[in-house]
Amino acid sequence: MVTIGDVARAAGVSRSTASYALSGKRTISMEVRERVNDAVRELGYTPNAGARALATSQTMVIGLLAQFLEDEFAPAMLQYMLGVSDTARELGYDILLVTEADGARALRRITDSQMVDGVVLLNVAQDDVRLPILRAAPQPGALVGLPGDCSGLDVFDLDFEEAGRIMVNHMHRLGHRELILVSQPEHVVERGGAYVWRLQDAALQQARVRGIRLHTAFGESRQPAVGRTLHALLDSHPSATGLLLNNEAAAAALPTVLHERGLTVPADLSVIGRYSDEFARTFSLSFSSIESAPDRLGRMAVRQLVRRIESSDTAAEPYVVRFISPELVDRGSTAAPGSRRDGSHSRRPQ
Amino acid sequence: MVTIGDVARAAGVSRSTASYALSGKRTISMEVRERVNDAVRELGYTPNAGARALATSQTMVIGLLAQFLEDEFAPAMLQYMLGVSDTARELGYDILLVTEADGARALRRITDSQMVDGVVLLNVAQDDVRLPILRAAPQPGALVGLPGDCSGLDVFDLDFEEAGRIMVNHMHRLGHRELILVSQPEHVVERGGAYVWRLQDAALQQARVRGIRLHTAFGESRQPAVGRTLHALLDSHPSATGLLLNNEAAAAALPTVLHERGLTVPADLSVIGRYSDEFARTFSLSFSSIESAPDRLGRMAVRQLVRRIESSDTAAEPYVVRFISPELVDRGSTAAPGSRRDGSHSRRPQ
DNA sequence: CTGAAAGCGCTTACAG
DNA sequence: CTGAAAGCGCTTACAG
């Protein structure tokens, strides 16, 4: 491999001059700079990342901790990852992707060994075991997802409470008075997925305010289980006229369930989901939904992280907790409650 | 940060002895080893990755080049990524994730700067611009996807030709004589997505052998376009009794299309897709499919890559091109052609 | 405006 | 069985 020594020799200057010519950190005569640049081009020189990291204590790499848990919907995670990855690259950073099941151990490994200048944590739980490790690390961290304790960290999340209220209000405005909310699997709640209860609690509260009956349930993350749950819920609450989904797998399974029951949206049932537009297009979901804006969240997290990495007086700036305001994307899946939920169209096998 | 010098001082030995005690690369007295290990534990020592990389010329990092192109189905990529990531970690490697649009430039950057010990390329095209760069790089590379020229690289892919034959043969055995094959968008072909024509050509060939009429078409990668294409194809070929899908987006869109047409699978139409079981469960697809085995392919690529990274005489072992034999996962979506394709069930809105 | 030298934190021949 | 020293390829005060 060609080193900066080779470049210096070819340009007839010292290694320090070659280095300065490339970094621009001190004034270099035009002529020398030209010679150095020529040498770089001819020899095909690229600085060795390890050596540079050792000398500067900067790796220009950001750690991305993603978790792919059995009971969550993997593709939703991808959107956040791409938001983080693309933004990092724009800002000059590469991404070290960590998908280990034991996120705490992995986090310790990459921070202790100084492989990264900072870390983005996805899918943060209420009482996330990775947080104490992140706080103790010398590198800054940014979270996507709201934990119970935000101290010492920058946090970004969708305003799930507002999302719950918007769902209920929208349905109320159309005249619905009985709704079903399908959340993520109960395991997600047990693991501390705060966004589940943040949306649900706010929706229940708002339903009370509006005088709406709101039935809540946890849905599975896979077929055929989640499909059966949807059937059971529709069976149990025949007078419900609207369905709210805070569960991507349920949204993906719903078209088939509707088909099996012979139901049409929104004539027979109004539906609002909570997922990204990208997700809707990819999975052919034509339900209106609260935009979860994973790309924006990933982008915001990286921007703030890089700001903190590059700010001289670390931890001088106050930490931020920032919520994205949810927006309802109308895909025409809601309407005034119809009169067609009489079961006559039902073609569900036994 | 605590360095090996701190450990050595605490243990009362030289830095080299501390290093050897940790690496086990020469015999160390029990007593000294104990003292060193105690010091490591007390001080919380972890080697600095950059320094180690500089000294050993090994980063213990593998580059993963994924492409998320507008006209391809992003979630399918995720499965390959996880197969690669999990296997790499098992073998002691971390993953540098590269998602840049300009894959060639990115590849050059991470190999030239020696950020990685080797590279896995996903979504390899017939005449992939990244390959010349990879061949010129000092690090070895493994491909998932078959290019036109495999020289100097280890290549892994599904046997798409056999997949095409299996689809046709399976339908033929059930009595089908007219089929439709929906491939990826034409853009994918133009970009050199060889798997598209490998499957299609083999299917056409086999259809000829079996005396089957096979209509082929390219499908879009998004709704609502791909749904419209499916409708149009079913309209144009009313006597076709089976549908073959080499297009994940089409598979995801099909349940809604079937619903709109009032068709039941397999009574009205037999369907075989080509995607992973993981994909089927995640997206609630109950069509039989050729397992695309992304996790296995990712795993094989990393295993071979690591073998090559760690083999002393690089390029001494011959390069391999290995195909996974496709297997049909029966989810009950095929049957003998029925008599219900008479249009009487059609409920498609004009 | 430029050069010689020290140092980042490791590993590993070279000596003993 | 252990230590002193060189070296990996950079960057950056320190001198001039």
From TrEMBL, chains A, B:
Keyword DNA-binding in annotation: yes
Keywords: DNA-binding, Transcription, Transcription regulation
PROSITE patterns: HTH_LACI_1, HTH_LACI_2
InterPro entries reported for this sequence: HTH_LacI, LacI/GalR-like_sensor, Lambda_DNA-bd_dom_sf, Peripla_BP_I
Entry-linked SUPFAM superfamilies: lambda repressor-like DNA-binding domains, Periplasmic binding protein-like I
Pfam families with a match to the protein in the record: LacI, Peripla_BP_3
SMART domains in the record: HTH_LACI
Cited PANTHER family: LACI-RELATED TRANSCRIPTIONAL REPRESSOR, LACTOSE OPERON REPRESSOR
Protein name: LacI family transcriptional regulator
Organism: Phytoactinopolyspora alkaliphila
Taxonomic lineage: Bacteria, Bacillati, Actinomycetota, Actinomycetes, Jiangellales
